[in-house]
Structures are given as C-alpha cells and as structure tokens.
UniProtKB/TrEMBL annotation:
SUPFAM superfamilies: YWTD domain (SSF63825). Keywords: EGF-like domain, Repeat. This is AGAP008193-PA-like protein. LDL-receptor class B repeats lie at residues 71-113. GO terms for molecular function: Wnt receptor activity; Wnt-protein binding. GO terms for biological process: canonical Wnt signaling pathway. One of its GO terms (cellular component) is plasma membrane. It comes from Anopheles sinensis (Mosquito). Signal peptide: none annotated.
Length: 252
C-alpha cells in the first residue's frame, strides 16, 4: 500500500503519494501556442484547439494558469488589455478583467485563496492582485527592490509567492520569494536567461528553463539545493509552457 504524507519541504520518495487538497486528475495538458490554447490528452490522443486568441494578438506567448478549485484556466491577452477565463474544455469563455493597465500576459493563480496575481507592466516593480470571486476587488503589492519584474508564480499549498527581478545587465536577474502579501522577502538565487517558472506541488520546488544553457532546472527554496532535470533542450518561448506543464503534471 502506498504511504500518504502531507506535502512538506522535502522531496518525497518515488513510492510515496503526496496527498494534496483539491487534487484533480483530468488526464490532459493545456498548452499555449502563438494562436491559442490546445488540449493535449496524456494517453496519446490527438491534440485539439479549445481557445483561439484574438487575431490582433501580438504577444509571442500567453501564460496559462489553472484554478483547480473552480476548474477553469486563466490567461491574458495584452493586445486588447483583457484577462479571460474558460472551462478546461474551452467552453464558457468569459472576460475576467479588462483594464488599460493589462500590458503584460504574465499572471498566476492562487486557487486556494481565490486570487489572480499579475504583472501589470513589464517595466514596473508592482504586482496586482484580483479576487476571483469579485474582480472589482483588487490590491497592489510593491517589492522593496528597484527592478523590472519579469515573472511571478504562486505556491498555493505553502502560501508563497515567487518573482524574478531584472536589475540591469550588470546585476542580471534575481529570484525572490515571500509570503502572499509580499512580506518577508528573501533572495533565493541569481541566474540568466530564465523565465516562466512553475512550482511542483509535490515537492515545493520552483522550476525554470535556462535558455542560454538549454537546460530545465529545479530549485528547492527550503534546502537551497538546485538540480538539473533536463539538458540539451531546444528551448524557445512556444515550447516552455508545454514543457513546464508536462513536468508539473508528472510530479503532481
């Protein structure tokens, strides 16, 4: 019989089942491409498109994040300054939030507290937070560091927020984490050529691609240890969402 343990800071064994709350087994991946969202069956079935992006969408990538509690996927199209949501099969597509400051497609979802975190402006250092239940309720978080935010991701199970800051060519990019209200900020590591982070729910590791080295790495913020899980990858923006969702699905 498999052992059931509550997820904690350490990597769990191969025969241990991580018993996370509200876990859903849907048997497919959701992949963002330059023209829309595709549903890819894990059993080898044929992928098919469930959402088509607007024709004037000029983003080279659109971030996808799921609301496990509500069974919906969220994404932003900065070309028309709108955040959308839809069910996992693409039906019931809705405008979740529309505002002139939606200038970036970077967002993440905390499905436990029911909030969407987003970067309004890729040149700024603020994070906007929107209530899923009532999008009219929102707040703005400010980092203590003078930098350009490039990516964010939430670990809902552990109540942590990760973000990357670009501080110029001399200092490069730094990865930070904090509580969900951005208190207790801590520098985790510095790197180059990385974006599109994803948290593995089973282990609490934050994973990210490194374009310059063609690798996919994972970092444990508790033990401060880093590991390479894939090498010699052909990385470009359209592949990363698929790669990250595949890795996350395999560990979750």
């Amino acid at each position: 019989m498999n052992q059931h343990l509550v997820c904690n800071a350490r990597t769990i064994g191969a025969q241990v089942v991580c018993n996370v709350g509200n876990r859903f087994e849907h048997g497919f991946l959701l992949v963002s491409t330059e023209d829309g969202i595709y549903r890819v069956p894990i059993d080898g079935g044929k992928p098919y498109q469930i959402v088509t992006y607007n024709n004037d969408n000029w983003d080279y990538e659109n971030y996808l994040y799921r609301d496990c509690a509500g069974g919906r996927v969220y994404w932003a199209e900065s070309s028309n300054q709108t955040i959308y949501s839809a069910k996992y099969d693409g039906t019931d597509k809705k405008v979740f939030f529309a505002n002139h400051d939606v200038q970036s497609s970077v967002l993440t979802v905390d499905w436990i507290s029911g909030r969407v975190y987003r970067i309004p402006d890729m040149l700024g250092s603020t994070i906007a937070v929107i209530s899923i239940e009532n999008p009219n309720v929102h707040a703005v978080l400010n980092t203590r560091h003078h930098c350009q935010l490039s990516d964010i991701v939430v670990d809902p199970l552990r109540g942590k927020l990760y973000w990357t800051c670009f501080k110029g060519l001399k200092e490069g990019t730094s990865l930070y984490w904090s509580n969900l209200d951005m208190s207790d900020e801590e520098l985790l590591l510095k790197f180059s050529g990385a974006s599109e982070m994803h948290v593995l729910m089973a282990t609490g590791e934050v994973c990210y691609p490194q374009y310059h080295h063609s690798t996919l790495k994972c970092f444990d913020p508790y033990s401060k240890q880093s590991r390479t899980i894939a090498e010699n990858l052909r990385l470009h923006p359209y592949d990363i969402t698929e790669t990250m969702y595949y890795v996350a699905s395999g560990d979750e």
